[in-house]
Amino acid sequence: PQPDLRRHFQRTIERDQRIEPRDWLPEEYRKTMIRMIAQHAHSEIIGMQPEGNWITRAPSLRRKAILLAKVQDEAGHGLYLYSAAETLGADRAELTEKLISGKQKYSSIFNYPTLTFADVGVIGWLVDGAAICNQVPLCRSSYGPYARAMIRICKEESFHQRQGFELLLTMMRGTPRQRDMVQDAVDRWWWPSLMMFGPPDAESPHTEQSMAWKIKRHTNDELRQRFVDMTVPQAEVLGVSLPDPELKWNAERGHYDFGEIDWSEFKQVVSGNGPCNAQRVAHRRAAHTDGAWVREAAAAHAAKRAEASAA
Ligand code: 3HC
């Protein structure tokens, strides 16, 4: 039956239809979907740390309430995505172990420090803006549960991006000191935001297969270019400059040309030697250890309930 099942899988992909948990799928497809969904979930959970750092120090109640809502959204995105990974037979506890032990990755972008409150605005504007560029196409990903999770997550990401842009617009209309804070944050987050889209296509081991299986709908470089084209006009509205002297409109291409990304920095951060990697993983490990009693209590309660209903 394998050839028929494989043919059915291939036809479903070719017809732009969804692969569902009950369908037969190649082991390689399962593995790459678990890898991608789990690392996306890890990114959401770790991503709560840089922003959470400013919740107690937000400059107003309104900013605190917005930031609180955003960080709670990220937690929800993480849990949503771990559930999507479970539909492929992954075990959530195992995925957490892999994150904590460094066997699975999370997005490089969260290994940079948030030094001032302007970073909260720049993360919303640039990091969530990049996430939207990367995730909107994933709403059409061939694996059903992942695509459906993306639809809801993208709606919340657009709130994240809007609140970040509005925060920066407010600061840019403030004092010279506030304007300097915004420019300083943009200078620090611009290049790491471009690295979020992954290595250049020519050095991406997964892109070709992920495109063939319609998991990815665009390549890393295509989405990176789309993000640059979308963001440059927004920077002009904000009145900030982007830290790339080679950034300029290329009428022939119909896109912005931009400078070379420092791929050695990217490799350093992805391999665990970024500014905050050790701190981020240690924090996650501590949260997991401190939370053990909650997991044990919930399991004991569930066992008691099961006993009572079996009696
Ligand atoms: N940070 C860390 N690792 C990265 C990376 C990054 N920015 N970009 C690529 N990598 C890793 C890949 O995971 C892969 O390693 P692995 O084999 O151990 O998984 C290796 O580098 C090669 O990269 P590829 O481009 O070949 O890998 P992919 O085809 O998986 O593409 C990706 C990478 C574009 C990130 C893709 O996995 C993807 O689109 N993932 C779903 C979206 C996602 O995870 N976004 C995270 C952004 S953070 C976020 O969304 C939170 C929001 O609130 C801001």
Automatic annotation (TrEMBL):
Query: Domain of life, per the record?
Result: Bacteria
One CC-aspect GO term: cytosol
Q: InterPro entries, per this entry?
A: Aromatic_CoA_ox/epox, Ferritin-like, Ferritin-like_SF, PaaA, PaaA_PaaC
Q: One GO BP annotation here?
A: phenylacetate catabolic process
**What Gene Ontology molecular-function terms does this entry list?**
phenylacetyl-CoA 1,2-epoxidase activity
Q: Gene3D superfamilies recorded for this chain?
A: 1.20.1260.10
**Which NCBIfam families does the protein's record reference?**
PA_CoA_Oxy1
Which PANTHER family does this entry report, sorted A to Z? 1,2-PHENYLACETYL-COA EPOXIDASE, SUBUNIT A, PHENYLACETIC ACID DEGRADATION PROTEIN PAA
Q: What is this protein called?
A: Phenylacetate-CoA oxygenase, PaaG subunit
Q: Which organism is it from?
A: Saccharomonospora marina XMU15
